[in-house]
Amino acid sequence: MWSLPLLRHTDVPPRVTENFILSGYRFPNYSLWQCLVSAFRPTNETGNFWTHFLPIFVFTFHFLEVFTWEDAPEPSNPFFYPFWNYFLGVLYLLLGSSLAHLLNSMSLIIREICFFVDYGTISAYTVGSSLAYYYYIHPQAGIPEIGFEGQNSTRRQSLNSDEESWPSASSPTQVQLFFESLYIPSSCLVAIICVITCCNTRQCWWKYRYAVRTLVFLLPFFVSSTPVFYRLLSPSASSLSSSSPHLFSTMAAFFYRHCFWLVVSALFNISKIPERFSPGNFDIWGHSHQWFHCCTFLSILDELQMIKVEMWALLLNPTLVLSSATPPRLPGPTLWSTYGVMVLLQGCIACIIAWFGWQAYQIYQPEQKKLKGH
């Protein structure tokens, strides 16, 4: 493995090269073992792998902290269904991205499939975020009767016993109708559109592929973040959904930081700074895609903290949105409304990847045969 030479951009197929990265390329005929070992060798993909692989463990550590909270339900409780789906979405994104960068030198065809999967995991992450936003940050989010234990159980049981006396909303607003009927389906539809568009950039719009991919994923961000925008822009929603002004301001601060890191990551991905100003000097370490990975993970970490703040608010005061002046809370999460949505989405994404993978096989199979004799 260590004797395999690293190549310059002039020695590999044009499809393998990246703008302003002149050296450190692996030839696209590595074995699986050679690709795995290359994670410990300085190539121009090494940093791309580690900047999304190591964050898996950091994210898992912060994720599991929730289950150590006092009076928190069991991890298998339905209250945590959306949270587990959010975890799966982030895990798919980080693991899919790191493996795509590690394994893409096995062949030109596998390279294409690796990045098709990468785009699919990003879309799965956006839907996982939407599920967490819907059940924890939605203005009508609340805790259903799901068998909590602890010092607040008496208050929760009393709350549930009085639930039937609450008046229902006589005329739900358009915003309420969107959240209740269209929010999750819209998130899934936009996620599928994003996968198709990003996969298309492997063949179309090649010159502007980074800008197209970055801008395309703005759409799922705006759709999935609508509960947060509504909370921030509607005084009534913020007052009903937070147990204290402090928790609401903390949630808002984490969301603004989440947006900041997303903007910075987009700038790195589109501008190709710093390697644009010094081609060849950032081939192995410090190029824009590594900074892009770091910033996207920081945005995810702030998003996780934002969700945890809202979960803590719900556990602290389950009566947040339940009063005679407001519509009833949303139905609690179920296996079908959380895991079922994710499984259905993954099936659709798998079909899309299979179709584009077949197209890539037809396009690159003749060229790959020539490379095997190289």
UniProtKB/TrEMBL annotation:
- TM ranges: 49-69, 81-103, 115-136, 177-198, 210-230, 250-270, 335-358
Q: Would the keyword Transmembrane helix be found if you checked this record's keyword annotation?
A: yes
Q: Where in the cell is it found?
A: Membrane
Keywords annotated in UniProt: Membrane, Metal-binding, Transmembrane, Transmembrane helix, Zinc
| A GO BP annotation | egg chorion assembly
Give the bilayer topology.
Multi-pass membrane protein
Judging by the UniProt lineage, the source's domain of life is Eukaryota
Enumerate the GO terms in the molecular function aspect. Answer: metal ion binding; signaling receptor activity
Q: Which residues are in coiled coils?
A: none
Q: Does the keyword Transmembrane helix apply?
A: yes
Annotated Zn(2+) binding lies at H101, H289, H293
Q: Which GO terms describe its cellular component?
A: membrane
UniProt lists the family membership as follows: Belongs to the ADIPOR family.
Instruction: Please give the name of this protein.
Output: Progestin and adipoQ receptor family member 9
